Amino acid sequence: MRTNKKGRKLYKTKEKNYYGKSPVGKVFSAVLSVLLIGGLGFIGYSVAEPLLNYNKKVDDDASNVETTTEPTEVTTVPDESSSAELVPNVRTDQQYKAAALSVNAMNSINALNAALEAVPADQGIEYVEVPLKASGGNIYYSTKVYEAQSSGAVQSSLTLDEIVSAIESAGYKPAAVISTFWDNVLPSTYPQTGYVTVDDGSQWIDDNYDSGGKPWVSPYADAAVDYVCQITDEAVSAGFDRIVCSDFMFPHFRPTDLELLDQRLAGKDRFMALTSAANLLYDKITTGGSRMIVEVSAAEILSRNADILQPMMLTADTVIVDINMDEISWGISDGWTVYEFSGTPAEKSKKCLGFIGDELEGFNVAVRISGSSATTEELIKAKEEIADLGYTSFVIG
Description:
By secondary structure, this protein is α/β, with parallel strands linked by helices. It contains 13 helices and 11 strands.
């Protein structure tokens, strides 16, 4: 799900700044925002960081972006050295039991029905998740959003009514997965939705064009946030019971990239662009009668790039953490520590949860076990074993 997003730059157009409004009633969050923006220069991060509780990782004395200082020593955490043995202080009061379909299931109504028939029938699954907007930016339904059509993002002719009807006919509740800010398609046609350089407003891409470099949408761009809102509105109107919003993220900027871009991207409060957008989506989704869930990658948490995990600032309180076997099996580095994983998917999942449990504190947590390198039987076994640790909400696939 997550690729190497490190990059260089190339150029073309301007962006707008965006901060969505926090929901009414989030008084404490508003006070914290004022403290961050207006008072950090006076009181320093030594007070603000403990309040926000967003930098609690192993050997954590750096910001959420890569720095120009190379670590003098890299610690490797070997396979046998750690495992989740205790139930962490997370919530599981709102149960969510789901199976996730792949983009291949969205090719046709026949493919969708076949995928629904393959959902394990004896696992207590209540919801079926379908990828309406996938990581990378492609859209797998017949959207009416003009920018999606004109950018070439649409990859399926299935209507939302057809998708909802098929899922309900199979005996499940429909859940939509919508990738938010991992989108390389939209800014290729609409550069104003992506990152731009501060000197001349040129478009930034994550590598040289010859190496396959791509632009990314920015949470600071009004047009990018509005685009996600339009897609979300369509899903809510179609009757999806749950809206899973994933990829609240920034590219993995290099220090040389940050020299060219808005200085806010190197700041410790850059997460506010993501939480503001997430809170705006939460308002729209709940007003429409659906419920919102935020999905975050376990690999992003381990590599210290999960900026969205701000329980005191985020209105949505349910989080799906995606443990993707294809990602973690190669090992994950945060620049200071290398986390290694081997063994069965169940063993990898338990070890991963042992590392990231503290970061999930305060949220109602579901665990997604995924990855093409694992069989369905192995994913189910992993689901069963992490349930013994207290993680009883799950997504398979």
